[in-house]
Design brief:
about 240 residues; TIM Barrel
């Protein structure tokens, strides 16, 4: 079954807008875990506009008692970020090529241009026993380098899929993701996915075989406001259960 990892950044953003600890991100994580969610994701940015360093530590501490729930910390691998991850020791660290102050992730790594830099970071994660994942565009031709530098997984950047879903470009776009997934499987690279996946497009996306994890935050929070969190999480989990193995 595909693991649903709920990104709680938007919960932190909502909290920060009022200047008090409500809603509490650990409480929200506990709520969705009680519903059956098996993953929690955070993306702490340097300006702490949503998830703070303290949130990351608090969630890490809380999740240590949840042996069947994985903690995924994602971000640009600055030295400060890597030190934070090494101290928290989550199950997984997803490296994204974001610039400081960037609104949201909007492209995958150019591994050729960043090979030496990424190789050092990935080695540090591996030595700490932390599974690594690289945020990548759905380009099968670029996945060979991912294998060479030792990343355990890739997270396919799915905005292109989401933008073209339901349009005349859907089938051609979907084919790119199928080819990337097949190449990852051929190379023995684990496959995650995330960005703008939602209740409408996720069933189609998860017809791709061997998607290990989907990270969903913004859409899940918006849909929860619209439909109620219990209903939304139940629907996501059902989609993940029915995903291609």
């Amino acid at each position: 079954m595909t693991v649903l990892s709920v990104n709680v950044n938007k919960i932190a953003l909502l909290r920060n807008s009022r200047g008090r600890d409500f809603p509490n991100v650990v409480d929200f994580a506990a709520q969705v875990i009680d519903m059956g969610v098996k993953g929690i994701t955070v993306h702490p940015r340097p300006d702490e506009r949503h998830i703070t360093r303290q949130d990351a530590f608090d969630l890490g501490e809380f999740l240590r008692s949840k042996e069947d729930v994985e903690f995924n910390v994602e971000g640009y691998p600055s030295n400060d970020f890597v030190e934070l991850v090494l101290e928290i020791k989550p199950a997984q660290c997803t490296l994204v090529p974001d610039k400081p102050g960037q609104l949201t992730s909007d492209h995958g790594w150019n591994v050729d241009k960043n090979e030496t830099f990424l190789d050092v970071v990935l080695s540090r994660l591996k030595n700490a026993g932390i599974r690594s994942s690289l945020f990548m565009d759905p380009d099968a031709s670029k996945l060979g380098k991912v294998k060479e530098i030792g990343a355990d997984r890739v997270e396919l950047y799915t905005e292109q899929f989401a933008n073209n879903f339901g349009t005349s470009k859907q089938d051609d776009t979907f084919q790119e993701y199928l080819l990337a997934a097949a190449k990852a499987a051929e190379l023995g690279i684990g496959l995650n996915a995330g960005h703008d996946l939602d209740l409408r497009n996720l069933p189609k996306f998860l017809t791709i075989p061997a998607i290990l994890e989907v990270s969903i935050g913004h859409a899940l929070v918006v849909e929860s406001l619209q439909h109620g969190v219990k209903s939304v999480v139940k629907q996501y989990l059902e989609i993940c259960r029915n995903a291609a193995s």
